[in-house]
Prior knowledge:
The complex is a heterodimer.
Chain A: H1 2-14, H2 16-39, H3 51-55, H4 59-80, H5 82-89, H6 93-126, H7 146-173, H8 176-196, H9 200-209, H10 211-215, H11 231-255
Chain B: H1 20-33, H2 35-57, E1 82-84, E2 86-112, E3 121-124, E4 131-137, E5 146-152, E6 157-161, E7 165-168, E8 180-187, E9 190-196, E10 203-209, E11 216-224, E12 228-233, E13 239-244, E14 246-260, E15 267-271, E16 274-275, E17 281-282, E18 286-290, E19 293-298, E20 302-304, H3 318-339, H4 341-348, H5 352-388, H6 398-426, H7 429-448, H8 454-463, H9 496-520
Antiparallel strand pairs in B: 1-20, 2-3, 2-8, 2-11, 2-14, 2-15, 4-5, 4-11, 5-6, 6-7, 8-9, 9-10, 12-13, 14-19, 16-17, 18-19
Helix pairs in contact in B: 1-5, 2-3, 2-5, 3-6, 3-7, 5-6, 6-7, 6-9, 7-8
Amino acid sequence: xxxxxxxxxxxxxxxxxxxxxxxxxxxxxxxxxxxxxATVSCPSAGCEHDATKLGLxxxxxxxxxxxxxxxxxxxxxxxxxxIRTTLAAMPRRATVLAAKAAVLAGLTVxxxxxxxxxxxxxxxxxxxxNGFTPAHGYPPLSLADGPTLxxxxxxxxxxxxxxxxxxxxxxxxxDSATAIGVVLGLLYVFSILPLMISDPDWQRLLWRISPMDxxxxxxxxxxxxxxxxxxxxxxxxxxxxxxxxxxxxxxxxRLRDA
Amino acid sequence: MTTGAITPYRSGxxxxxxxxxxxxxxxxxxxxTVRGWLIGMVVAALVTALLGLFxxxxxxxxxxxxxxxxxxxxxxxxxxxxxxxxxxxxxxLAGDGGxxxxxxxxxxxxxxxxxxxxxxxxxxxxxxxxxxxxMIKAGTRQGTAxxxxxxxxxxxxxxxxxxxxxxxxRPGGVSAASPRWLRLTRSGEELTGYESAxxxxxxxxxxxxxxGLPATVQAGFFVxxxxxxxxxxxxxxxxxxxxxxxxxxAVFDQVGLQGKAPGGTWSHDDIGVTTxxxxxxxxxxxxxxxxxxxxxxxxxxxxxYADGQRIESTLSGVPAGLIVVIVVAVMFITxxxxxxxxxxxxxxSPRRGRVLAAKAIVIGTATFVAGLAAAGVAVPFGxxxxxxxxxxxxxxxxxxxVRVVAGIAALLAVAAVLALAFGALxxxxxxxxxxxxxxxVLPHILATASVLPVGVAQWLLRVTxxxxxxxxxxxxxxxxxxxxxxxxxxxxxxAPWAGLAVLCAYTAxxxxxxxxxxxxxxx
Lengths: 258, 523
């Protein structure tokens, strides 16, 4: 496995694309979080916003870049035919996919940590100016606060799981355009399905199985009892999606011609 | 010595024609013969239609009560659903004539959100659009044609007619120190509203032409007060609207009826009041007379009605279908770069701009047809399912329905061309697909289903290509009716065609850039 890891790391290290995408993850996540923090305000009458979730909203945009990075990790090889060389050199295909997943997870966690820290910092600096003050019941965002730490650490894990989900999907469908379409559809379109239906039972069911809605429950710090799932259970749903996608993709990788 | 001339070789074959029609045919053949793309188009149409039908079948509504029969929503003279609930003191008026009153006071009460659950919190106050004034109406049946000259809670004197029309008069409210005189006259089908501060100097506010007004109409004075609206963030994104009870009470005196009044006495009706199961009225109005002064209390509103499902709620599958369309449209060009076919294409047709134009026309047309089929199924069948599930679907004119269906097909087609342009610009499918989704689909989702404040959501739907979604809005905004005019409630900041024009402008810009780069760069 060490050799496979080394090979995958070399590929990532020597291409221009992944480095730029990692920077894009950080920049987009932080920028969107800061922009949202700057536009949402809490009037003196009080508000019901979840300041932590608001400060981490950039994750919803950054995940799209994570998906691109993950998809290109494998689809790029199919596009250029490199995959045949890879599999000729390392015939144990499951190990190849595992090595790719490990490298990708490491990179995503690294970039995700910087992005999430940047978002929390932006929220800490900007939100008090918009009425999110202790007087309105909003202490400054701080990682010393238990739920906020859970939300921040969970957001990093969320991004890593999005990468795994995307890698699994891309391994299954191979083509980068299709894979990106499937992943972004699964995330964004699935997340608005609960709003399209007025039946409350359906709403809760769809919310519980939607990878983005359920997964982002990890960012919630208020009204936890009204959420259809607890934060960690929600992240578990995304974990199940990611595991399912990786297993399916791995199985297809073993069974099909490259 | 003679030098023999060398004749260069010329092929005997007729030169191939390279007109634009041949180019279109070539591109159509490419689209048609790649099985994945054709399947993609079909999938896009199916996803759009089926998700719409699915969300329609998951939306139930019931009114409770015996038989679960919802009260019928009245329909106005223009065919739109209307609210027509007010307290009306009236008498028949035959032929031409008019009515004049003086309004000396306007008060009311409003129920605010409960502080302690279960305890009603009712405070004195007048809703901004509470109305008191004179009215001439075709009859006392709800939804019949009318014109009214009124003074409002905080929007001054207005002339309103046939539920949707509103003309502003002099601003200012009503008090004992500054009473408002109001007059409405009928001459044939023409009704004219006047107002005055002293009863002698009159200012014309507006004139309404009510086609088909009967010879004998009901003339009188009325009071109505719309409910108090609050909007709250919903747990799953979007918003929850609450409308709570509010009533208004106005005092009228100096009542004068000009013209022939065959009845001669005032009758009073609480138009549109709801009867509770025990036979009593729900929030009734009231009427009291003492010495020529009439005190009238009214609850309700005379306005377009928007509390129901819209036809465009059956188009919830469009974002999903749009993603599939984007993928196919991007691959329509990036696959040529991936396989090197672009070099053959450009060799066969060296005028590069025309190649891209042909591709745009082919993908746009194919998407338009697929979108038309999808929306043409989703809208009529989806509304049928919604009605079968007990939902009230707001009626719209047939032309509006056609605009919504064709407009969504156009939105998908233009978005496909934009995605194609991104593909030509970036040459890489991953970047192009992500960019296209990020600028077309994502802003719409963020604006309609997230925690973003209304102002930001409206700006997103003005300045991004997602503005094109405005084409599906079937209801108009009415400034004289307080509503939650937010994207999450289905109201777009731009008019339908203006929104689509924004998307078209972006598409033209990116397509232009793509042509420019295709000409300048090696393929």
